[in-house]
Amino acid sequence: MSKSLPYSMKDVHYDNAKFRHRSLFKVITQTLLTSNMRRECVSCSTGKFLGLLMIFGLACLMLTHTNKAHSVSDGLAKGIATNEEHKEVTDIGIRFKKLFRRAPRLPPRLSPDEKIIHHNFTGKLNEPNVEEQWKARQQNVKDAFTHAWSGYKKFAMGYDELMPVSRLGVDGLGGLGATVVDALDTAMIMGLDDVVSEASSWIESHLLDRIRQKGQVNLFETTIRVLGGLLSAYHLSGGDQGMTLAQKGPKPTIYLDIAKNLADRLLSAFTSSPTTIPFSDVVLRDSSAHSAPDGLSSTSEVSTLQLEFNYLSAISGDPKYSTEGMKVLAHLKTLPKTEGLVPIYISPHSGEFSGENIRLGSRGDSYYEYLIKVWLQLRDTQDGNFTYLHDMYEEAMRGVKHMLVQKSTPSELVFVGELPVGPKGYLSPKMDHLVCFLPGTLALGATKGLTKEKAMKDNLLTFEDLDNLKLAEDLTKTCFEMYSVTSTGLAPEIAYFHTKDYFESGLDGGNKSSEYVNDIIIKHADRHNLLRPETVESLFVLYRITQDPKYREWGWQIFESFEKYTKVESGGYSSLDDVTTVPPPKRDKMETFFLGETLKYLYLLFGDSSVMPLDKFVFNTEAHPLPIKSP
Ligand code: DMJ
Question: List the disulfide bonds (predicted).
Answer without folding.
Answer: 436-479
